[in-house]
Structure formats: C-alpha cells, structure tokens
Specification:
8-stranded mixed β-sheet, 3 domains, 24 strands, Ribosomal Protein S8, Chain: A, domain 1, alpha+beta, globular
Length: 623
C-alpha cells in the first residue's frame, strides 16, 4: 500500500500557523508592536489604512537588525528571545515563539527596512506569501520600518470573513491601548487614513490613562500599590461611583504583558463588594510583577492566557491591595468615632445608642432633642415640638386608580381618579374603592398592584424596557421621533474606538431623535436629543450609548433596527428608576399591557409575576 503521510510544504504550514497567530488586522498590530518593544524602541508609530486591510505600518527606533538577522526573522521558529528549554520559565520579553513574522509573511505582502545604529546602511526585504521576492541595501533611519500590505491577499476566504472597517478598527484600537498602557515610558502615535487618532507622550501611567481615555478619568483614579516577596501590585483603580454596567475598561498586566484572567477579575469585584451595584464593573489598570518562574504563559499563541503556581495567594493579595487603596481614599463604609451617638429616648428619658431618624412630615414623630446643657437651652427645647405643628399630620392623598388585568380594554381607557380630602375618599369608598385596585411603588424599583386572583408584582425597569423598545422600534420604522433642540450645542469627548461605531450607526441613532456630527477622532458635537431623555448630562448619555452598542455590536449585522431598539431600550430603561406618581404608575401599566408582549422584555426576561391568594396564604403558613 502506498504511504499516505507526507510532510507539508513550508508555505502551507505557515498558512496553518497564521490561522492561530493572525486572526485579523489587530493581530498583526499586536505582534509587530511587541517586536518593537522587545527591540528597546522609545518611539513607535503606527499607520493604518482601511482598518488594516490595505496597509499596516509600524515604525520604531529600536535596535534594528543585521542583514542575516533580517532574513532569518521570517523563518519559522526563528527567535532571539530564548536559547534553551529552561528559558521558557524565565521569559521577560513579549515574544518568544518565533512565529509572528513567518505567519504574517504567509498571508500578506511585506516590506521591511531595518538598520542597526552602528551600521551605515540598512537592508530592504520584500516578502510575498512566504517567498522572498527581493533583498537589497538601502539608506534608512536606525530601527525598523515594516509595512504589511493587502492582508489575506492569498486567502480570499479569510479576507471575506473580516468585519466592517469600524469593527476591525475597534479591535486595532483595543490592541494599541493594551500595549500603550503596559509601556507608558514609550511614546506611541496612531494614524488611520492620514488622521491622527492618538499621540501619546512618554510619562507616568496616570498621564497615559488620562491621555488615552480623557480628562474626566483624572477625577476617578485611585492609586493602588502593594509589594510582597511573591508579587507586586501597582496601578490604578476607579472610584466606585464611576463603575459601569458593561466591561471593556479593565486591564490586567503580568510582567507588562496584557492577560485575560476571570479569577483575578473576580478578586477585583470582591474588593469592591458593597461599594458598587450588582452587575457593575469598575475601571482598573493593574500591573502584577512576579518572578517568571511562578507563571506559565506558553498556553496559547496569542499569549493572553496565563497560569500561576499559586493563584489563591495572588487572588488574596490583589483583593487586599485594592481594598486598602479604597479605604485610604475614604470610599468604603467607615465609622465616625468622633460623633455623639447617645440620644435621649422620648419614652423613658434614658440614653440609647440608636442613631436618629431623619424628621418625617407624614407619619413619624420628629427627633427628640439632644440633652440640654444650660437653663436657657432647657427652656428653648421644652417647646421644640411646636416647630413641627402642621407637618406631622398626614396630608390628604389621592386614591390611586385600580386596573383590572382580566380585561385588556381596561388599559385602553384610564379609569377616573378621585382627588380631594380624606373625608371625600371615605365617603366614596362604597362606590369607588370596590371597583379599584391599589397600585403602589416599592423602593423606586417595583410596582405592586392588586388583581382579581391576588397580587401582581411588576419590575419597573423591565416594564420600561418593553415600552421603550416598542417606542424606539416604531420610531425607526416611521422616522418620526420627537427631538428637543439644545439651546447651545454640546461637545462630547469619547474614546477614538467608539467614534467609528457611532458614525456607522448614525442613521438609526438619528432616527430616534439625536442630531450630531463628528469634529475629530474623539469628539462629537450634539445639537438635539430625543424628547424623553434629560439633557443635564449629555456626556454620560453618549458614554452609556457607546457601552451598550459596543456590547451588542456583533448582533447589529442581523437586524439593525430591531437590535438598535433593543440595545437603547435596555440602556435607557434604568433612567426611569425614579419615584412615580399615581398617574405615572397608571400610565406605565397602561403602556405595558398594550405593548407587543407585556410578559417579557425584548431580551426574554419576565416583566411581572402573579402571586395568587393561595400562594400568599402558603407563605404565611410556611413561615
């Protein structure tokens, strides 16, 4: 029988390896930036055209290469980083596999100019599909200038699988940010289609964060520093008030290498416990310095996964360092030992250790006065109750309307509301109250309404998400959204990674009532907003919009209008977690039950539950 196992040609083997190393243009940017850092470059320039499809150019002032090294760098498993197997356990460089340039050359056309500072002339190499096309001497600056043209020119299937330019550029910006944050001592610049996106000067990490993400980050940074014999933790974390609902600005670096580690992220969340709301994610840029012998980064070609020999110790040290930083900045709950917590009990006249309640003008009695220290104070305090005369009596409250859930027509016509004094309400009890159900709000979060079978509990945020979804979807279909014109146009500064995404979705966003234009790679000018959105903090509004679009961007390819409506409804529904009047509660319930699906949100979450009388009775029996 004929032998069937054959050795693959180098060109095919390189293309197979490129499938793991070079997944998209951002992978090329990452690998070439890491090579420039390993070459001890102090200034790195990145030039991109068409989100990396046409051109990716990296220029650095590093050590450069000799003619022989330049040719060898495109061979598989050729590297200057390691010599022996033991070197794998003490890696300090970014690269070590020797696969990056060979994989890139297998799927692109490459020109590389490189020169060492000690040489008079440099070398120019042209590679295409793993083949050396030309090699010649050339005059060039010290360092390396590498151009990657027409990525995936010989693998059409891979090129067709690339996303839109805005998506690919966002991935490039993510990789650029990670490398730039890990090395604030290096100057970086990034240009896309001849437009400057970033120009970052060398400096401290705090300045790099502010230059990259915006001046508003200066107010939220908390320095985190902790040194132990095993690991050193340094960097910055964000104040709890700036925590966001979506992830994206969380950065872990181990020995200046960006890594993804869910276990360490859990340690950060544990440190923020009870200071941020559930489901929120704080901002952090944390550097972990550890002996390379205690970690293993040789897990995946992208080198973003890492293993520790003692993960529990790293977890505990990281959590303790962040908690210490938060407590030092007085952001965690603390006890005021200087305040007087002794108060006179109005019932017994004895001192108690109960903290005072705020004065209530509806049901609760006013605070008891502190102990008098003089005769005059004792006389003045003897009549302190008169200060609250007229306020402690309950005000007449309107009888809230009741909504029958068994007949949908009840929600189409609001029932009349009885307004007036409590006496009028009592007189009308026999005729009105019998046909009504009491609807009340709990903690600005839930709405409780009586129904014939028992009690209905409505999730207020979920109900508004359904109502807003139907409204936005109708506006996108009819292009008739109401908008409010701003008296003065507002300027909004966003991350350069978000501007292309906003502009790509401009048609859908404008249909909802927004009106804006781009002023640069990181600035928008806003002229109008949807009529039902507040205009007090437009910066935060657009940041929330970008967060949610970023989270749902992959789904936008399916149905842009539906996904946009679902995305914005989910984000803006939380803005309606406020105190509602009886009329607003009635309006919400009416709008919910005439919606397309009052039972579930667009994402499939239940909006309300019915507690039957039997179930309520069982709760008391079980209790």
């Amino acid at each position: 029988m004929q032998d069937v196992i054959r050795l693959l040609p180098d060109a095919i083997a390189n293309q197979i390896a490129a499938g793991e190393v070079v997944q998209r243009p951002a992978s090329v940017v990452k690998e070439l930036l890491e090579n420039s850092i390993d070459a001890q470059a102090k200034n790195i320039q990145v030039i991109i055209r068409d989100a990396g499809r046409t051109l990716i150019q990296i220029i650095d002032d590093g050590g450069g290469m000799s003619e022989t090294d330049a040719r060898m760098s495109f061979e598989r498993h050729a590297t200057s980083k390691i010599r022996h197997a033991d070197d794998l356990f003490k890696i300090r460089t970014m690269g070590f596999r020797g696969e990056a340039l060979a994989s890139i050359a297998a799927v692109a056309q490459i020109e590389m100019r490189t020169r060492r500072p000690s040489d008079e002339i440099g070398i120019l190499l042209r590679m295409e599909g793993s083949e050396l096309k030309s090699q010649e001497s050339v005059a060039c600056l010290p360092g390396t200038n590498i151009l990657v043209k027409n990525l995936f020119f010989n693998v059409p299937a891979r090129r067709n699988f690339l996303k839109t330019n805005s998506v690919e550029m966002r991935h490039i910006l993510d990789e650029f940010q990670r490398v730039a944050l890990a090395h604030p001592e290096i100057s970086f610049s990034l240009y896309h289609n001849d437009t400057e996106v970033y120009n970052l000067y060398a400096g401290k990490l705090s300045r790099r964060i502010v230059d990259m993400f915006g001046k508003n980050y200066r107010e939220q940074l908390i320095q985190c520093q902790e040194e132990t014999p095993y690991v050193t933790v340094r960097g910055f974390v964000g104040k709890p008030d700036f925590a966001r609902k979506t992830r994206g600005e969380q950065f872990f670096f181990v020995n200046e290498r960006y890594v993804k580690h869910s276990y360490l992220h859990h340690a950060v969340l544990a440190a923020y416990e009870s200071t941020i709301s559930e489901g929120s994610h704080p901002f952090y840029v944390l550097m972990l310095d550890i002996d390379p012998s205690h970690i293993d980064i040789n897990i995946h070609p992208t080198k973003t996964e890492i293993k520790f020999d003692d993960e529990r110790s790293v977890y505990a040290l990281l959590m303790a360092a962040i908690r210490k930083a938060i407590s030092i900045n007085h952001l965690s709950h603390s006890i005021d030992f200087e305040s007087n917590v002794n108060f006179l009990s109005p019932m017994s006249g004895t001192r108690t250790n109960t903290a005072p309640k705020p004065p209530s003008f509806t049901r609760d009695a006013a605070l008891a006065p502190p102990l008098p220290t003089s005769r005059r104070e004792e006389t003045n305090l003897s009549h302190w109750e008169k200060l609250f005369d007229g306020f402690q009596k309950p005000d007449p409250t309107p009888v809230q309307t009741t909504l029958e859930l068994d007949d949908k027509e009840d929600f189409l016509e609001p029932l009349p509301t009885t307004l007036g004094s409590r006496a009028n309400a009592l007189n009308a009890e026999d005729e009105d109250i019998k046909n009504r159900r009491l609807a009340v709000q709990i903690q600005n979060r839930y709405v409780v309404s009586a129904v014939k079978s028992g009690m209905m509990l409505i999730d207020q945020r979920a109900a508004y998400e359904r109502v807003l979804y139907d409204r936005y979807l109708k506006q996108l279909e009819n292009q008739n959204a109401a908008s409010q014109q701003l008296l003065f146009p507002a300027t909004v500064r966003l991350s350069p990674a978000n501007i292309p995404m906003i502009l790509e979705m401009r048609e859908e966003i404008t249909a909802l009532g927004f009106d804006f234009d781009a002023l640069g790679p990181d600035t928008l000018v806003v002229r109008s907003l949807p009529g039902d959105l507040p205009s007090d903090n437009i910066q935060q509004l657009f940041e929330e919009l970008c967060e949610q679009l970023h989270q749902s961007h992959d789904e936008l390819r399916l149905n842009r209008a539906e996904t946009t409506a679902r995305t914005l409804a989910r984000r803006f529904a939380s803005r309606y977690l406020v105190r509602l009047s009886s009329d607003e509660i009635e309006k919400l319930i009416n709008q919910l039950f005439i919606s397309s699906n009052p039972n579930y949100t667009p994402s499939g979450e239940p909006i309300f539950v019915i507690l039957s009388l039997d179930k309520i009775a069982n709760l008391f029996k079980n209790g």
